Amino acid sequence: MKILLVEDNREIRNSIVTVLELEGINVLTAENGLAAQRILANETVTLIVTDLKMPGMDGLSLLKWLQHEGPSTPVVMMSAYGEISDAVEAMKLGAEDYLVKPFDIQEFLIRVKRVIEKHELQERVESGWRKSANGIQWIGESLQMRQIKRLVEKIALTSSTALITGPSGVGKEVIARMIHASSPRSSRLFVAINLAGIPEHLVESELFGYEKGAFTGAYARKIGICELANEGVLLLDEIGDMPFHLQGKLLRVLQERKIQRLGGTQSIPIDVRIIAATNRDLEELVQQHTFREDLFYRLNVIRIEIPPLHERAEDIPVLTGYFIKQFNKQFGKTVKGIRPDALELLQSYNFPGNVRELENLIERAMILAESDVLTSKDLNLPELRVNSLPRKGTLDDVQREAIIEALQRWEGNKTQAAKELGIDRKTLLRKLTDYGVKGI
Ligand SMILES: Nc1ncnc2c1ncn2[C@@H]1O[C@H](COP(=O)(O)OP(=O)(O)OP(=O)(O)O)[C@@H](O)[C@H]1O
Ligand SMILES: [Mg+2]
């Protein structure tokens, strides 16, 4: 995160820089609008904090330039007391916030952070829309994946609430987008909100929006994500991280299908298909009383549980082929495939990061690959993952290590590795299971 501070008074400039840097924020400084323009020609910043009155080019002119020609970076304006008409002008020109000097530095920090958070959120939502417009594909041939595909096709026609669960990187978001894309709502928005990524105090206003004047800093009405998604699909991602005190409110919204903006009195009817996703064990959270049981039942109408990748190793070859094609397009490469021994190695790896990890692995391999067929060397697997079974004893340790080493030497070829170890293939397979080397 980088902030550009535009301020002609050196003392004020230095004291703000000190505070921001203590917060771990990078700061660039300029003494007026012209200097700021020069910096912005080469640098991208998260936020601009600018004084109003400055010799050379003042804050309002900088704002105007930003609106018309410059980058669309959010701006916080500061000025001395008594220039309230300028404040109004600054807000009209698109400044996100306005601070009157002298201000309390803690208040300054809170306001600056709020603007940054709001923008990051906005970007997340927008990138969500872009992604959903792109053709998404659900790749998988395993029995589990075919069953999920059939379920998705069936429930896409309804508007029932769905709960998607499974470990990180298994494709929960892909499924949510698939439901949207194959539903009658596909011409409407798919909006995703990541409840784990939003500071707790912002969750409510992001979901439900607010009216002008609802709280300090609410300069204009803001439409919440529930309202944005009207007639479309709303993905409540990482629902397990929903703050407890808001769970009751969400439950009411789900039941009544109406929302109220913060500070508002009007009940607004909404027609949204809700999909919730999480990699946490909601049943367990319910038992621990950190997730409301009634909300859980309200969400758990249709349950889609996506198994980890190592439990459906049949999907690894198709997914690998799919990712190779995707990255060929993206990198302008002409990789034709993967060597069988390398593929076998992939199928024996337990992928703690699931499909996302496979995708990253193939991406890296394609960048490194020297020939047009990926080899196990290109894959550079972070050694065969071993389940964290308690080690039994030294002899077992030695055997386990020997087996893993042999497999690595033979690039996953079990027949060769067994031969080298002086055991037969069946024994090797049994030992792999005993030692918790996954997926073989
Ligand atoms: N069946 C699939 N077909 C094609 N691509 C997939 C599939 N499953 C997952 N992916 C890809 O893997 C990556 C991770 O998927 P996704 O973001 O949906 O996972 P997730 O379960 O939501 O993970 P997290 O819990 O970390 O949020 C994405 O890039 C997605 O495109
Ligand atoms: Mg996700």
Automatic annotation (TrEMBL):
Domain of life: Bacteria
Organism field: Vecturithrix granuli
PANTHER family xrefs: TRANSCRIPTIONAL REGULATORY PROTEIN, TRANSCRIPTIONAL REGULATORY PROTEIN FLGR
Any Pfam family the entry gives: Response_reg
One example of a Gene Ontology biological process annotation: phosphorelay signal transduction system
PROSITE patterns in the record: RESPONSE_REGULATORY, SIGMA54_INTERACT_3, SIGMA54_INTERACT_4
SMART domains the UniProt entry points to: AAA, REC
Location of 4-aspartylphosphate modifications: 51
Alphabetized UniProt keyword annotations: ATP-binding, DNA-binding, Nucleotide-binding, Phosphoprotein, Transcription, Transcription regulation
Domain Response regulatory: 2-116
Entry annotated with the keyword Phosphoprotein: yes
One example GO MF annotation: ATP binding
Domain Sigma-54 factor interaction: 138-367
Tagged with keyword ATP-binding: yes
InterPro entries per the UniProt record, alphabetical: AAA+_ATPase, AAA_lid_NorR, CheY-like_superfamily, Homeodomain-like_sf, HTH_Fis, P-loop_NTPase, Sig_transdc_resp-reg_receiver, Sigma_54_int
Protein name, as recorded: Two component, sigma54 specific, transcriptional regulator, Fis family
Gene3D superfamilies: 1.10.8.60, 3.40.50.2300, Homeodomain-like (1.10.10.60), P-loop containing nucleotide triphosphate hydrolases (3.40.50.300)
